[in-house]
């Protein structure tokens, strides 16, 4: 590979190779405070879709140890997004040392709230705002549940902000570091936010799950209890490796839903969302 | 040294030295060749750097899960087919784990491959469909092609478990130059405790060698060659007459050339103990070796010209030229029509 870098995010080491300098330079700048792994778990490759597409209308083919067969190529301007997508995919398809939940999480006093839901539910925005409000950011894409202890391991990759939250978070977090604004991506406008120094420094410190939330953005404020059975089923859908882990996955998920209270929350705007999370947290 | 060469050396000699900075590429290449589970098993109990240990444990865990799923799938097929009273032989990875062979240790297993007597094909297919298996794709030409020219039924999928089954009636396409004796494969089958069967040791080696060298373009072939290494070692250890029996059996199937080449390649790449008379190098071995090791340290296939040559060869050995021309013409036309259809839909 012409250009390469390595970074460790939480317990997962990545090796990223690229035909172009730009995506690697951007990763090096934004992940500057993250450690370099001695051995990478996963390899990611950003290569030209055809040899000439390195220079002419450069197009990135996502590659790596594991890949979906029909991943669409991205233009070079979206190189950072390509890298993040490919890195996420290695975790989603390959990581088995923990139960993976497609979720965001934030920690306070050693305990954490886990927010899970479909894309658009507000995971990234809420976890970034909780970080701004003094919580320790654990991640906005995956929460890794330790199969033996049930603790949540942080995976504090760059926060992927989309569409309306791009401008809102820039306004609310003037001191924060951001990546470039990526317009016209398959997911709309995207901008990456660098987690604060505390989140990066403590990325090997796990937290005890204490509250499980299923947020839904855009509806009037409402809170509903979610029983163990429903939480279990929803989390099997939110986990990319539940089935792969077999019995160990079942045990970890059962323990999580029987020990941690769960609520479905609806919120109309992000202020309300943060207030709701704080209220529920204080009522624990 | 290329990571892929290091991988073959480490599979043969797990205690060999590995520089600390070689592990990332080694694990990447092992994953790409579907050999990470096998490597992790070979390295069990060997001192490795601290960050490597959990990755190997993870690979062993993944292989254990694949083993469990493969055996479960075999049991589902057994239940569906038991009333027919025909012998059902497990093939490849599922056979290795079901028979408790060392080739199954850490092996990646995808589809379920079984072999049944040709005359039972219709009943087997009907029983599988009755038990929930369905067509993977609805394509008249592919379906007809499989049934007319292939050594297996079109693949069937069980939607609830999302697992494929390939039902074979022999181990090479009937159009190939070599015609193994399918009835002898069934007659020589070894029963397992649950009523399923596996091939005899000699036939297992013949099948592995034909699968690697007489069918397909050797993509992912390193894993298949490592199977052969494991099988040869285990069978020769258990039976001092194994090589004699293999020689006789290979002649019955007319599979002398591919089995001999497989043994030589296994000896060359994995140090498989092979009798002297099997070891004399033959022209072409170097090209096969070059093809098997065609992967760079980032896990990408390289040596494009060599791979292309083997791709062309895979078609040439699969069927006679006229049939091949007809097949490629139909495939090409369908593809072109498919693309045009897509373009039209787009515009």
From TrEMBL, chain A:
Query: What GO MF annotations does this protein's record show?
Result: kinase activity
**Keywords for this protein:** Kinase, Transferase
Checking InterPro entries in the record gives:
HprK-rel_A, P-loop_NTPase, Sigma_54_int_dom_ATP-bd_1
Q: Does the record's keyword annotation contain Secreted?
A: no
Q: Which residues form the signal peptide?
A: none
Q: Which SUPFAM superfamilies match?
A: PEP carboxykinase-like
Protein name (database record) = HprK-related kinase A
> Which species expresses this protein natively?
Sphingomonas corticis
């Amino acid at each position: 590979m012409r250009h390469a870098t390595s970074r460790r995010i939480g317990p997962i080491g990545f090796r990223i190779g690229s035909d172009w300098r730009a995506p690697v330079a951007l990763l090096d700048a934004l992940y500057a405070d993250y450690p370099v792994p001695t051995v990478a778990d996963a390899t990611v490759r950003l290569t030209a879709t055809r040899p000439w597409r390195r220079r002419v209308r450069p197009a990135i083919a996502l590659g790596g140890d594991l890949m979906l067969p029909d991943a669409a190529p991205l233009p070079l301007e979206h190189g950072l997004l390509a890298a993040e997508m490919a890195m996420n995919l290695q975790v989603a398809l390959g990581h088995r040392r923990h139960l993976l939940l497609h979720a965001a999480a934030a920690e306070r006093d050693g305990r954490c709230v886990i927010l899970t839901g479909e894309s658009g539910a507000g995971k990234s925005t809420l976890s970034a705002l909780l970080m701004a409000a003094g919580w320790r950011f654990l991640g906005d894409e995956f929460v890794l549940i330790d199969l033996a202890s049930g603790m949540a391991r942080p995976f504090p990759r760059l926060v992927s902000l989309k569409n309306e939250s791009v401008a809102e978070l820039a306004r609310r977090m003037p001191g924060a570091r951001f990546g470039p604004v990526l317009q016209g991506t398959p997911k709309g406008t995207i901008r990456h936010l660098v987690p604060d120094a505390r989140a990066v420094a403590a990325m090997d410190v796990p937290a005890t799950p204490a509250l499980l939330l299923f947020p839904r953005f855009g509806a009037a404020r409402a809170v509903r209890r979610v029983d163990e059975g429903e939480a279990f089923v929803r989390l099997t859908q939110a986990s990319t490796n539940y089935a792969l882990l077999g019995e160990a996955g079942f045990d970890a998920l059962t323990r999580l839903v029987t020990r941690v209270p769960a609520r479905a929350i609806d919120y109309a705007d992000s202020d309300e969302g943060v207030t709701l999370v704080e209220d529920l947290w204080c009522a624990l | 040294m290329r990571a892929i060469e290091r991988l073959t050396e480490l599979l043969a000699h797990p205690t060999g030295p590995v520089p600390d900075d070689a592990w990332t590429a080694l694990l990447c290449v092992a994953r790409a060749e579907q050999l990470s589970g096998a490597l992790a098993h070979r390295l069990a109990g060997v001192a490795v750097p601290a960050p490597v240990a959990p990755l190997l444990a993870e690979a062993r865990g993944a292989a254990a899960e694949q083993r469990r799923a493969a055996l479960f799938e075999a049991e589902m097929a057994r239940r569906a087919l038991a009333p027919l009273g025909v012998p059902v032989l497990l093939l490849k990875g599922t056979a290795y784990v079901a028979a408790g062979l060392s080739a199954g240790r850490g092996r990646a297993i995808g589809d379920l491959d079984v072999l049944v007597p040709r005359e039972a094909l219709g009943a087997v297919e009907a029983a599988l469909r009755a038990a929930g298996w369905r067509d993977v794709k609805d394509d008249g030409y592919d379906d007809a092609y499989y049934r007319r020219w292939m050594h297996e039924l079109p693949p069937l999928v069980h939607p609830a478990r999302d697992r494929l089954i390939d039902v074979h009636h022999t181990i090479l396409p009937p159009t190939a130059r070599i015609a193994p004796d399918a009835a002898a494969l069934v007659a020589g089958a070894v029963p397992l405790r649950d009523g399923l069967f596996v091939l005899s040791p000699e036939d297992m080696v013949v099948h592995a060698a034909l699968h690697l060298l007489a069918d397909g373009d050797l993509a992912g072939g390193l894993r298949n060659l490592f199977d052969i290494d494991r099988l040869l070692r285990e069978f020769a250890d258990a039976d001092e007459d194994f090589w004699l029996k293999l020689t006789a059996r290979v002649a019955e199937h007319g599979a002398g050339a591919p089995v001999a080449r497989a043994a030589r390649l296994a000896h060359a790449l994995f140090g498989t103990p092979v009798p002297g008379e099997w070891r004399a190098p033959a022209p072409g071995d170097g090209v096969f070796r070059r093809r098997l090791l065609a992967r760079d340290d980032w896990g990408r296939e390289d040596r494009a010209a060599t791979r292309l040559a083997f791709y062309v060869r895979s078609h040439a050995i699969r069927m006679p030229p006229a049939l091949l021309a007809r097949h490629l013409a139909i495939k090409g036309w369908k593809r072109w029509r498919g693309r045009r259809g897509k373009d039209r839909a787009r515009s």
